[in-house]
Amino acid sequence: MAFEFRKYFHVLKEAGIEFANDNGTKLSASLAYYTIFSIGPLLLVVISVSSIFYKRADITTKILDQVSALVGTTGADQIRTMLDNTKTQGNTTLFSIIGIVVLIFGATGIFTEIQSSINYIWSIKAKPKKGWLKYITDRLLSFSLIIGSGFLMLVTLLINLLMDILSDHLQRILGDANIILLKGLNIGLLFVVVTFLFAVIYKVLPDAVIKWKDALVGAAFTGVLFLIGKFLIGYYLGASKSISTYGAAASLILLLSWVYYSSIILYFGAEFTKVYALRLGSGITVYDTAVYIVKREAKEHPEVKHPHM
């Protein structure tokens, strides 16, 4: 038991060192920047996909409720404004087509940025050949993840609906204890959803092959960090008075801060997944369209050529 704990502790320690060496906070800041421009189109596409099977208004309300629980009402209001401003407007067919293309391009920006960063964290780089084909493939992959997120949202809504029905029956039997049980079920549901989402990100997005078992272990670890971070970040942002000094931009700063801290969790989880797969798992191999990169320090620029003496 103690030996197993030491192994995981060393994995955690090495992941922390690798995160610092890879400038994980800088990568997180970059993702937060991209998210501000992509989150509106992303949520709008997810809502559109989910609304094929469920009421659009209910899905929108559910998403805004989740955002409000994470970053407060001001952050939710900012998301609502983004959704309203992102909706495609105009009556001409050409304008609508252009709007949809721009919408999809913006929505996939988050996932392509995550892919690039995880590739770097895992010391992987896509080959420059057939750059346009790779670019289109990455965008299609990102869009497929968005479609999957829409179905995941639908499944979550259906599960919540079943939990509401179950709650009515449990209320008659358990009374006030029903509240504690439902909170536990909600936390468990959130953990399963985010763990599955992280596992798909670590398994599908990078230009590498990693076993599902290794991806799930890393995703479960990241899911635990996300739940802990959800509480701590929410408490900090709610208690911090420095946000209010930004005035009208406070809601945007609040949302940006939450995305930044969540990105740190995502990328630290990627470091943990990499180290776990290499040290305790089945390893990581690159696709034929990618190569490994070597990160090392040098006292001079590698392209400097000394004259022959």
UniProtKB/TrEMBL annotation:
Subcellular location: Cell membrane
Domain of life: Bacteria
Bilayer topology annotation: Multi-pass membrane protein
Pfam families from the UniProt entry: Virul_fac_BrkB
Record carries keyword Membrane: yes
Transmembrane intervals: 31-54, 92-112, 140-163, 184-205, 217-237, 249-270, 276-294
Keywords, sorted A to Z: Cell membrane, Membrane, Transmembrane, Transmembrane helix
Main location: membrane
GO cellular component: plasma membrane
Keyword set includes Cell inner membrane: no
InterPro entries assigned to the protein according to its UniProt record, in alphabetical order: Virul_fac_BrkB
NCBIfam families xref list: yihY_not_rbn (TIGR00765)
Protein name: Ribonuclease BN
Organism: Flavipsychrobacter stenotrophus
Taxonomic lineage from the root: Bacteria, Pseudomonadati, Bacteroidota, Chitinophagia, Chitinophagales
